[in-house]
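--- STAGE predict ---
source: upstream dedup step, 1 unique chain passed
mode: sequence only
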Amino acid sequence: MWQKILFLSLSGAFGTLARYWLSGVIQKLISTEFPLGTAAINIIGCLFFGFFWAFMENRLSVSGQMRTFVFIGFFGAFTTFSSFAFETSQLLNESQWLWASVNILFQNLIGITGLITGLTIGKLL
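--- STAGE serialize ---
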């Protein structure tokens, strides 16, 4: 169990460092008010999440534990947006239109509302 936690922590740390570095590089190379670094990370993360998921599914025999390290550890730290996009695409793939729509609206609207509420509370305290 401790070994699994250690490897998950390490893969998460690598994902975090990769996000921090790449986002900074992109933002410095293309100076703009738009958060291009974050947008690029989310898009790149989704692209690579999909690629590695399909590659591991179709070409490699990869253990569930290794998938945990790659997708929850690395990609979870690199961008949680990739998990959100993958889960939504799974719902769409299964023709679960209502649940896919609810997932998109719920996570975006409630997430932004939660952030604004937290900012407001934090400023009041």
